[in-house]
Amino acid sequence: MSEKTTVFTTKVGRTAWSFQYDWGRPRASQSLREDAEREAAIPGVQADAIALRSDPSHAQFGLGFLEANDRSRGMVAAIAFAHEQAKLNVQLAIGLFELVGRLWLVALDNDLISVDLLYQDPDEAFSAFAALLPKRQWAKIYLPIETLSASRTRASAAHKAAEAPLAFDAALEDRSAAITTAPLVDLFRDAKAPPHRQRKIRRTDMRAVAYSRPVVFSAATIAALTIGVFGLWPLYKHLTAPKPVVVAEPAPVIAPAPPPPPEINTPSPANFSLPAGQWLKSCFDQMAALDDALPVGWIDGRIECQGTNATLAVKRDTGSIADLDAAYRGLIVTYGPTYDDAMITKATIVPIAPRQAELTASEPLRRRLFSLGWAVHEEIKVDPLSPPPGRQPADKATWRQGALTIKTATDLGQWAQLLDQVPGLVITSAAADAHLMKTAPTQFQWEIKGMAYGL
């Protein structure tokens, strides 16, 4: 066993997942559970929890160590990672994923979980990842898009200066076809895995048992007590006179008043998003830069802004891989299995300072948007605004939300000016078929999606 590491449980999307176990394999003579229990009970190990990967051909167990008061459990993330790679017929995979306040390094070596570690220091995480990268010919490599973009930028600068890129950057260049920037929430969208099984009663459980355990006497004990008392009663009665029994009234116990619940007033997401017009302008500029750089011999397809990324899908006609790589040097180019299609990704991270977004009444906001669509002869849909799912009863926030969809042939720059006049709008994506803009402009259409926030 390696140095003890503590299991960490957190939510990815809406599901709780548990990370950081020490992984081993059962002996041929033992069942998976028996061997896990035996290893966990070894003096000096004394694991608190075991996780079982019951794959007949790749059975494994993980041993976990919990904080004294930790009773949380989630599905075991490393098992889910292995299952998702099996769906892709991938036996060698490595990933570095962002969690809240941590980075998760995971590796699958010949279908076996070999690494399942968390890091709070990004430098330590990247150093560990860089050390593992050349060890195997990984078929799948998962990286945060910001890390990959920075690597591409460094490598591009090194090439321009006629210098050798860093070993880490060169390794990523050589394996660009294996790299994906899918975040963990996407990878685990439909994933399932068993939770770990707790081996020990935690201190919190011990306290609960100590305070609630009833006292039970056996029949033999009760009989012995009864015989002893009644056998000695005549002597006791002779030596002592009966005394009145005074039962003191217990003093009333006044429980302290519970503290008032903390006040909660969750601000709307509009406070932490770019204004709709600014987002659309930035998106359009990034998409135009992607499409303008397309080399001869490649055909553009779906172009999209979503979150902090702009992407362009392309198909090969007569072009070369070298031309495409040269045109998008410094960006992320991910090829399909036959290299006749590719996805170009450009990070468009824009710093967002928290602001006090202006919100208006929900129904007047919807009427304004529908009227705007009629005025410009474009299709606008706005769902009725309602409180967000999962809002707590103690939350005093009153804002509501509804999905917004705009289908339009009008330039995004014009929509940016129109939407800047409407309060409480957040745009999350804009997409179109770039090829139609050139070959069939009358069929060309943007699809803009977002959320409307009102009171």
Describe this structure in words.
The chain is an alpha+beta fold and 455 residues long. It has helices at residues 32-40, 77-87, 122-132, 145-160, 167-174, 184-187, 203-212, 219-239, 276-292, 321-327, 362-376, 412-419, 434-439, and strands at residues 8-12, 15-19, 22-24, 49-53, 60-64, 75-76, 92-99, 102-109, 112-119, 140-142, 179-180, 197-198, 298-306, 309-316, 332-335, 341-347, 379-382, 400-408, 425-433, 446-454. The protein has an eight-stranded antiparallel sheet. α4 (145-160) packs across α5 and α9 packs antiparallel against α12. The longest helix has 21 residues, at 219-239. The chain is flat. Mean pLDDT is 78; it is low at 201-240.
Class inferred from helices and paired strands: alpha+beta
Gyration radius, to the nearest Å? 32 Å
Q: What's the helical proportion of residues?
A: 25-40%
**Main β-sheet, spatial strand arrangement:** 15-16-14-13-19-20-18-17
Mean pLDDT, nearest integer? Answer: 78
N→C terminal distance: 56 Å
Main beta-sheet strand count, sense and barrel state: 8 strands, antiparallel
**Poorly predicted segments:** 201-240
Number of helices: 13
- Coarse shape: flat
Q: What fraction of the residues are assigned to beta strands by DSSP?
A: 25-35%
User: Got a strand count?
Assistant: 20
